[in-house]
Structures are given as structure tokens and as C-alpha cells.
């Protein structure tokens, strides 16, 4: 193996037109004709299984029928009533494990109705051509603070504004959108859609936005609870898990995937992003897939994703795994990192130990190791809730469960007048659509509480 | 292997599949293409007196199913817009070149004996096998006292048929309009007038759609529309009823019928033949897909006949006629109920909601640990078939006969019938 003196991490590995082509929309939208054909495949099931599988319970057969009759605006309204971020969910939902997985068409022909693309067709049409479909109820005079402008926060804020409450969204970043803006792979949400959707959400009126306001730094929960009638926390997961290996913090070239993805999403010129010739990604979730594919699309020569268990254990869906492989990512299973090998302060190899399940089904190392040479290592082994900003110096602490905020079925936390939802709550999945539902459920609970407590 | 050869009024054709009088048979070019494709015969698009008629621009309207296929079609075209001598010359040439195929000529002239007397010898000279009198065209020509304006008056139908039989030795087929209350009346009149056969149905008065942007019917001619003649798969049930009515009417029983109306494949053809049609005529399906559809008609009918042991068309022609009856003679004691094949069910719930919302509440929705299951409540099921029709899976819901242990009893015999004649 030849070793260069310096790690090969460089910008501009591909021509600008190649980069542009690589980051085009991976699923180009349906045109009207395709939408008509696809919508005609829906059987208009009664009590449809797809609806049950949707965390926001969008009335899928109804909206698809509306597309088929040419009532595309009606279809979009139907979607947005249930899920105000229906446009983004249409792009990023793992429909293959949600609505489309339950489509009855799978039973006999193994090809579900393309619900996600139909949803996108309808919502895009409304956002481009329609009048704003929501109005606000009579003002209640109540004020609600929403901390975190990601999917959960936006959904909660919109619903509260509709119900007549005044909302202030606080977000630590410069832009709202949360992971929609900073996390999702670029080719899933092209043309600045995340911000267009934020603008769409805010068009309801009654929502003021304060960006650059981090909880625990610029604002405190105590203060919000004092100044507002209710607080919704949609904080997401701001911490990333560490490998726990020596040199992880010191060696250059070892990075958190989420940080790099955020930079990539914000880059005005992706060609200026530096990426290694040889990339190793550690993890098995969607973030791992996203960093692997995106570094490949930036021009990395070899991208190897290493996961410690079997394909079916990866939290990235089969569809995502396949997508990575189609895009030239090599996926290795049953190995865990045991050592980062550096040279002149930069990572040059990761040593892995092969893994297996023991008699009791526990993951164990086999002692057998191998090394993968690399210039760039991305850690994508999960994110975690950081509790300090919430509980640090608060008079009353939020109850946690499994390291996240504990909530009841109405998304109510242990504190009076504080609700929470999205990735930061204990029940949270890592799905955008679940965040939207949490925010909606919380908004209605807040509304009931505020109206009851005149 | 089944023999599809057809002999209709002495007109022989290699199969019973003819193209109906319509745009596909307007000129030699199309007809030759059709014969090359395998069609057994054609009815040449209606000839009239010179000068030829003039057509408008924008002529067809359509009704589509959800998957964008045409299930209904209408037109506001008139008869041929080419000079009579051009058509006659081409007919003669085609018949000479394709002697084994049926070439029937459709005619429509004003309702005077001179007019019919004048045109018939010209057609006879072409060597054509027969004439078909177009008493059906429901638009345009009817405003000029021809087409359905004749076909809607049984006396005229009989009168013109009689003239034609007097002035030609060719077989005379009378094409009937469905735009009438009782199809048996013009059919009887045609028979009385001496017609050798009837063909039906011609197109049905229709407006296929309104263009909601310009608030006008389609097809739209400079902002206006008119009713056109409706055809295609959607009219097949209407045509079948009318054919059956003539086939079982004692006054017209045995009158040869060339069936027309939504025939698109071998199965449609077999159904019409089972109702006694001697040949079947096709237009819309050919206009939709081209002439190649005859391949399936020939091969499909052959295979089906082989599977049933029918050697010739005559072996099954008319076999369904005795089973077409009046409602009052249906067995009121017969009972069938729906049965759902759970292995085929895809759990769409359409049977349940159709029955629950609009019928007899006899399909239960059961949820077991999140698994859906739909079950027929046999005691409530009246055997209406709705569930079987809305089910998207072939053969998933079948209607099963139940032995009630009761004898045949029709409404005329039923004690619950207040109009029942007293038992002897």
C-alpha cells in the first residue's frame, strides 16, 4: 500500500457541471400525465391501511382520488390539513416502510401506488399555484413559545396560529427548518425547498421568528415559561455519539457526519467542499447513508460504509441501502471500529474488528481485525439529546426518559405548560413526519389547555 | 380447430368480424389495410347522392376510464364526404381484389323511391355483396330527413326496405337506430318490408362532455357543439339488450342479425353471437387501437370455441337467447350469496364499504391484532353481486348458489304478487 505524506482531502474533485448533475433531484416530480396514470392505480380503499401507516394520518385515498379528478388543489389541502409539511414529507418520508409498504397493491403485484410522489405533485402544485389554504381562527390573546424551528416546531406553530394563538419561534440557527434545512441530503430537497416550505408555513400569520436564539445561552426555559402562556420544545438532538476511540478528537480527517452534511446543505458552491479521496463512514442509519452518498457525489473515489451488524439491523431502510449501493458506496457489515491509525496528525486508516452474535444473541468481537485506509472518516453512529440547555440551571427540571424528554400521549412534559415533540422526546423516532404529528398533537393539547384555563 | 367461416345471407367471409360503416371503411386505402390485417368483411362507409356532404372540423368526443382509456366515443361526422363515383370505383376494385371478403355498401339517400331506385344499380355494378340501409345516423343527416329520422318511424323503415328489395337483387340489411323506445317495432317493420337482415345498433344520441372553460359541448366547433352518435365499450350493454329483444321476439325470430355496439374483442363477439348474431361489426375498437385487434378476435374466438367443443359459429349461435327472459319469469326462490376467497383478498375494504353504505350491511369488517378481514354475513346477504363487482381482484368474490330446498317459483305464481292470477 502506498502512503502519501499528507491525507488526500481536497475540494473540486469533480467539474462544476458534474457536481450539479450529481446533486439534482433524485426523484424528478411527476408531470400531470404521470400523476393521472399513477393516481388511477389507487383502489380508494375503505379504512385504508396506508392511512393507518402514516404518522399524520393523511387521508391518502381521498387525496389521490382528487388528483385523479383534476382537483389537485383539493388534494393538496387534504394533505396539508393533516400534515403542514406534506411537501417535505413527500420528499423524505421512507414511504417504503410507511404508507407504501401497506398499500394493498403489494399483495398481488408487489408494486404499491407511488403515494409519496403523488403527494409531492399535489403539494407542489398548491405551493406554486394556489391561494393560501388556511385562515386563522379568532385571536385568543394567548402567546406560545416554540423552541426549535424544525418539523415539530413548525407544525406546532402553524397549528397554534390557525387556532388563534400568537406564536414566537426561537431557533439557535440562522434559518428555520431544522434538519429539513441542515440535515436532509441535498438531492432530496432541491431548489431551496426547505425555506420555501418555511415561508409557506409562516404565511398563516401570527408567528414571529427569533433566530440565533439558543436555549440555555440566549434564552432560558424559566424565562419562556414566565413570559408565555405555554412552551413547546422541539429541540431535536444536538449531540452526536462518539466512537470512544483514541485520537477521535485529535486526528484531522475524523468528523461528525451531521456537521459536514449541514455545511454541505449550506454551501453555495459544493465544489468548494473538501472531501477525502478515500472515505470511511461508520454507522447504519440514514445519516450514514446520506454522508456516504453525498461524499461519493462530491467526488470521493472509494466510500466504504461499515456497520457492526446485519443489513436488516440497519436503521436505514432497504431502499436507502440499495440507493447507496447504486451510487457506488461499498457497505461492509459485521465489523466495528477498534482503532484510528494516524500519520502526522491525520487519520490514515481505521482498524475494524469483525463481529458476530454469541449464543445469547449479543454482539461480540471475534478478535479478527482488518484495516481500511482512508483520508476522511465520518462518524454517523447516532445523535443524542443534550439536556443541559433545558435543565442546566432551571428551577424545576424536566423529567427525562431514556435520556430524552418524557411526554405523555398529548406530548405534555412533566412541567406545567410545557409540551415537547419531535426527536427530543422519549417516544421520538427519527422521522420528519413523526415530528410533524407530535407538533400537531401538542398544538391541540395546548389549545385545549389554554382555552380551559381562561 | 374451430372453423370461423361465416355465411350471412349467402355472403361468405373467412370470419364473422366485419368493420362497421364508419371512417375505417371510407376508402380503398383503409379497407385494403383492414383486409391485409385479417378482417372478414367491411360495410363501406355510407354513400349518398352527389354533391358529397361537407364535414365540420372537430368531430369526435370521448369518455375515458380512470386509466385514460376510451370507454365511450362519439362523433358528429356525416356520411362519406367523397364523390359517389370515386367510392363506387374503389368498391369495385376492392371487391375484385378481395373476392373472399365481404363487401357490403351502406347507403343513405333521401326518402323517395326515385332516390333509392337511382343508387341501387350503381352499387350492384360494383359487385358488392349487399347493401346496408343507414337508418341510424343520429346527427346532421337526420336534420335533413334521413338517417335516424327514417329509422325512428317504423312505417318508413318498412317502406324503404320494400323499395330496395324491389329495385335490387342484392341482400338488403336494415341498420337500426337505438334512439327509439322499442327496438322491436322498426325490426318488425324491416322484416315486413322484406329486409333480409337487420344490423344494430347504430350510435346513440349523446353529449360526451362539456368543456367547462368555454361552456360548450365537445367536440366543439367554433364554440358550439351538437349531439353526436355514441359508441364504444360503454354502449355494448344497450346493444346486447336490443339484439336480444329482436332475437326473442316471435315476430322477428330467426331474422338474421349483424350485431354492432362496443365490440372490441373475441369475447364481445362470442356474446353477441350467442344472442344469435351472424356477424359482428366493429368500429370504435379499431379506431382506438388500429386493425391489428382482429388478431386476438380470430385467435381468441378459435381457442374459446375449441375449449367448448364448438366446431363452427352455428354451433353456438343463439344459444343464450332462450335464457333471456322477462323479470316475471325469474325464479324468485333462487338464492345466491357472496363468498370471499380470503387467500385472494387484498384487504381493500371496498366490498365492505359498498355493502355497508349502500346495500345490505352484510359484509363485516373484522380487525384481528391489526389484521383486516372481511366476512360475509350470510344471513343478511341477498346475493346482489355489488361486492363482487367492486372487488378489484379477479375471482376473489364469487356468488355461490345456495340450496333453499324450494321449487321454481316465478312472480306470476308467487302468492306475494297481488296481481297474481288465481290458481286454477
Mean pLDDT of chain B: 95
Numbering strands along the chain, what is their spatial order in the largest sheet of chain A? 4-3-2-5-19
Most residues in contact, chain pair and counts: A-B, 16 and 16 residues
Q: CATH homologous superfamily of the largest domain in chain A?
A: FAD/NAD(P)-binding domain
Distance between the termini of chain B: 53 Å
Q: At CATH's second level, what is the architecture of the largest domain in chain B?
A: Alpha-Beta Barrel
Spatial separation of the terminal alpha carbons of chain A: 74 Å
Major β-sheet annotation of chain B: 8 strands, parallel, barrel
* Estimated radius of gyration of chain A: 23 Å
Shape summary of chain B: globular
The structural domain count of chain B equals 2
Low-confidence stretches of chain B: none
Q: What is the count of distinct domains of chain A? A: 3
**Quick check: average pLDDT of chain A?**
95
Structural class of chain B: alpha/beta
Give unreliable regions of chain A as ranges: none
Strand ordering within the main sheet of chain B: 3-4-7-8-9-10-15-16
Structural notes for this entry:
The complex is a heterodimer of chains A (454) and B (424). Chain A is an alpha/beta fold and 454 residues long. Chain A has 3 domains: 9-23 and 240-382, FAD/NAD(P)-binding domain, CATH 3.50.50; 32-128, Alpha-helical ferredoxin (Fumarate Reductase Iron-sulfur Protein, Chain B, domain 2, Orthogonal Bundle); 143-238 and 385-450, FAD/NAD(P)-binding domain (3-Layer(bba) Sandwich). Chain A is built from 18 helices and 19 strands. Chain A has helices at 16-22, 32-39, 49-53, 60-68, 72-82, 86-92, 99-102, 105-109, 115-129, 151-162, 179-182, 193-202, 221-227, 257-266, 286-298, 318-326, 388-391, 432-452; strands spanning 9-10, 143-147, 166-171, 207-211, 230-233, 239-240, 254-256, 275-276, 278-282, 302-306, 329-332, 335-343, 346-357, 363-373, 376-379, 383-384, 400-401, 404-405, 418-420. Chain A has a 5-stranded parallel beta sheet with strand order 4-3-2-5-19, with helices on both faces. A 5-stranded parallel beta sheet of chain A has the order 7-15-9-10-11. In chain A, a hairpin with a 2-residue loop joins strand 17 (400-401) and strand 18 (404-405). The N and C termini of chain A lie far apart (74 Å). The mean pLDDT of chain A is 95. In chain B, helix 8 (266-274) crosses helix 10 (294-308). Chain B is of the alpha/beta class and 424 residues long. The longest helix of chain B is centred in the C-terminal third of the chain and has 15 residues, at 294-308. In chain B, the strands form 6 sheets. An 8-stranded parallel β-barrel of chain B has the order 3-4-7-8-9-10-15-16, surrounded by 8 helices. A 4-stranded antiparallel beta sheet of chain B has the order 5-6-14-11, with no helix packed on it. Chain B has a two-stranded antiparallel sheet with strand order 1-2. Chain B is built from 12 helices and 20 strands. Chain B folds into 2 domains: 6-323, TIM Barrel (Alpha-Beta Barrel), CATH 3.20.20.70; 327-423, Alpha-Beta Plaits. Chain B starts with 5 loop residues before the first strand and ends in a 22-residue tail after the last strand. Chain B is 28% helix and 22% strand. In chain B, strand 18 (363-368) and strand 19 form a beta hairpin. The A-B interface holds A 36-37, 39-40, 43-49, 68, 104-105, 107-108 and B 65-68, 344, 346-350, 352-353, 365, 372, 392-393.
Amino acid at each position: 500500500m502506498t502512503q502519501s505524506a499528507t491525507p488526500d482531502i481536497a475540494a473540486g474533485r469533480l467539474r462544476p457541471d458534474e457536481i450539479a448533475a450529481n446533486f439534482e433531484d433524485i426523484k424528478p416530480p411527476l408531470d400531470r400525465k404521470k400523476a393521472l396514470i399513477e393516481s388511477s392505480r389507487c383502489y380508494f380503499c375503505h379504512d385504508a391501511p396506508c392511512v393507518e401507516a402514516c404518522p399524520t394520518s393523511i387521508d391518502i385515498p381521498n387525496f389521490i382520488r382528487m388528483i385523479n379528478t383534476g382537483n389537485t388543489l383539493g388534494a393538496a389541502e387534504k394533505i396539508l390539513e393533516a400534515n403542514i409539511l406534506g411537501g417535505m414529507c413527500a420528499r423524505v418520508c421512507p414511504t417504503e416502510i410507511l404508507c407504501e409498504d401497506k398499500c394493498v397493491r403489494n399483495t398481488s403485484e408487489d408494486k404499491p401506488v407511488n403515494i409519496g410522489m403523488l403527494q409531492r405533485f399535489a403539494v407542489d402544485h398548491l405551493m406554486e399555484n394556489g391561494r393560501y389554504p388556511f385562515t386563522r381562527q379568532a385571536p385568543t390573546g394567548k402567546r406560545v413559545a416554540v423552541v426549535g424551528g424544525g418539523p415539530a416546531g413548525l407544525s406546532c406553530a402553524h397549528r397554534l396560529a390557525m387556532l388563534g394563538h400568537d406564536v414566537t419561534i426561537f431557533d439557535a440557527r440562522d434559518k428555520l427548518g431544522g434538519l429539513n434545512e441542515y440535515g436532509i441530503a441535498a438531492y432530496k430537497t432541491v431548489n431551496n425547498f426547505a425555506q420555501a416550505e418555511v415561508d409557506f408555513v409562516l404565511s398563516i400569520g401570527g408567528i414571529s421568528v427569533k433566530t440565533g436564539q439558543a436555549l440555555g445561552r440566549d434564552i432560558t426555559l424559566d424565562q419562556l415559561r414566565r413570559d408565555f402562556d405555554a412552551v413547546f420544545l422541539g429541540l431535536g438532538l444536538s449531540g452526536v455519539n462518539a466512537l470512544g476511540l483514541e485520537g477521535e478528537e485529535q486526528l484531522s480527517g475524523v468528523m461528525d457526519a451531521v456537521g459536514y452534511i449541514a455545511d454541505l446543505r449550506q454551501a453555495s458552491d459544493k465544489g468548494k467542499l473538501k472531501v477525502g479521496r478515500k472515505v470511511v463512514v461508520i454507522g447504519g442509519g440514514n445519516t450514514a447513508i446520506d454522508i456516504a452518498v453525498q461524499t461519493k457525489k462530491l467526488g470521493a473515489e472509494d466510500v466504504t460504509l461499515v456497520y457492526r451488524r446485519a443489513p436488516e439491523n440497519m436503521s436505514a431502510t432497504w431502499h436507502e441501502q440499495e440507493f447507496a449501493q447504486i451510487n457506488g458506496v461499498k457497505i461492509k457489515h459485521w465489523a466495528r471500529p477498534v482503532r484510528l491509525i494516524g500519520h502526522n496528525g491525520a487519520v490514515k486508516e481505521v482498524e475494524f474488528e469483525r463481529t458476530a452474535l454469541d449464543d445469547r444473541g449479543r454482539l461480540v468481537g471475534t478478535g479478527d481485525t482488518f484495516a481500511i485506509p482512508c483520508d476522511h472518516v465520518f462518524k454517523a453512529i447516532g445523535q443524542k439529546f443534550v439536556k443541559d440547555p433545558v435543565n442546566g440551571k432551571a428551577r424545576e427540571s424536566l423529567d427525562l426518559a431514556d435520556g430524552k424528554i418524557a411526554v405523555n400521549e398529548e406530548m405534555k412534559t412533566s412541567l406545567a405548560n410545557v409540551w415537547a415533540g419531535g426527536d427530543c422526546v422519549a417516544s421520538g423516532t427519527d422521522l420528519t413526519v413523526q415530528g410533524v404529528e407530535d407538533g400537531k398533537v401538542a398544538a391541540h393539547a395546548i389549545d385545549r389547555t389554554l382555552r380551559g384555563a381562561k | 380447430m374451430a372453423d370461423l367461416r361465416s355465411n350471412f345471407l349467402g355472403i361468405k367471409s373467412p370470419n364473422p368480424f366485419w368493420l362497421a360503416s364508419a371512417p375505417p371503411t371510407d376508402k380503398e386505402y383503409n379497407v385494403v389495410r383492414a383486409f391485409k390485417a385479417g378482417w372478414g368483411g367491411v360495410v363501406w362507409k355510407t354513400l349518398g347522392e352527389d354533391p358529397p356532404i361537407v364535414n365540420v372540423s372537430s368531430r369526435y368526443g370521448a369518455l375515458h376510464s380512470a386509466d385514460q382509456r376510451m370507454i365511450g366515443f362519439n362523433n358528429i361526422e356525416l356520411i362519406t364526404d367523397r364523390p359517389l363515383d370515386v367510392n363506387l370505383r374503389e368498391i369495385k376494385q376492392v371487391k375484385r381484389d378481395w373476392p373472399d371478403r365481404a363487401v357490403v355498401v351502406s347507403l343513405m339517400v333521401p326518402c323517395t323511391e326515385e332516390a333509392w331506385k337511382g343508387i341501387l344499380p350503381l352499387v350492384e355494378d360494383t359487385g358488392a355483396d349487399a347493401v346496408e340501409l343507414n337508418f341510424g345516423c343520429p346527427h346532421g343527416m337526420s336534420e335533413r330527413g334521413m338517417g335516424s329520422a327514417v329509422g325512428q318511424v317504423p312505417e318508413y323503415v318498412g317502406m324503404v326496405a320494400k323499395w330496395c328489395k324491389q329495385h335490387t337483387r342484392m341482400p338488403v340489411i336494415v341498420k337500426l337506430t337505438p334512439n327509439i323506445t322499442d327496438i322491436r317495432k322498426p325490426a318488425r317493420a324491416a322484416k315486413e318490408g322484406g329486409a333480409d337482415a337487420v344490423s344494430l345498433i347504430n350510435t346513440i344520441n349523446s353529449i360526451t362532455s362539456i368543456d367547462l372553460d368555454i361552456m360548450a359541448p365537445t367536440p366543439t366547433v367554433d364554440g358550439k357543439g351538437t349531439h353526436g352518435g355514441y359508441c364504444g365499450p360503454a354502449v355494448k350493454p344497450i346493444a346486447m339488450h336490443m339484439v336480444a329483444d329482436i332475437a326473442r321476439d316471435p315476430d322477428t325470430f330467426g331474422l338474421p342479425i349483424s350485431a354492432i355496439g362496443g365490440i372490441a374483442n373475441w369475447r364481445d363477439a362470442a356474446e353477441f353471437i350467442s344472442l344469435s348474431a351472424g356477424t359482428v361489426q366493429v368500429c370504435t375498437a379499431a379506431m382506438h387501437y388500429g386493425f391489428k385487434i382482429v388478431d386476438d378476435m380470430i385467435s381468441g374466438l378459435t381457442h374459446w370455441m375449441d375449449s367448448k367443443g364448438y366446431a363452427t359459429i352455428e354451433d353456438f349461435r343463439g344459444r343464450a337467447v332462450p335464457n333471456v327472459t322477462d323479470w316475471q319469469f325469474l325464479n324468485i326462490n333462487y338464492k345466491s350469496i357472496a363468498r370471499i376467497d380470503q387467500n385472494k383478498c387484498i384487504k381493500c375494504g371496498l366490498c365492505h364499504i359498498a355493502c355497508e353504505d349502500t346495500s345490505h350491511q352484510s359484509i363485516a369488517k373484522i380487525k384481528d391484532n391489526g389484521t383486516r378481514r372481511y366476512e360475509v354475513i350470510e344471513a343478511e346477504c341477498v346475493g346482489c353481486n355489488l361486492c363482487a363487482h367492486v372487488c378489484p381482484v379477479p375471482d376473489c368474490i364469487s356468488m355461490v348458489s345456495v340450496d333453499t330446498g324450494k321449487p321454481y317459483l316465478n312472480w306470476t305464481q308467487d302468492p306475494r304478487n297481488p296481481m297474481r292470477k288465481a290458481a286454477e
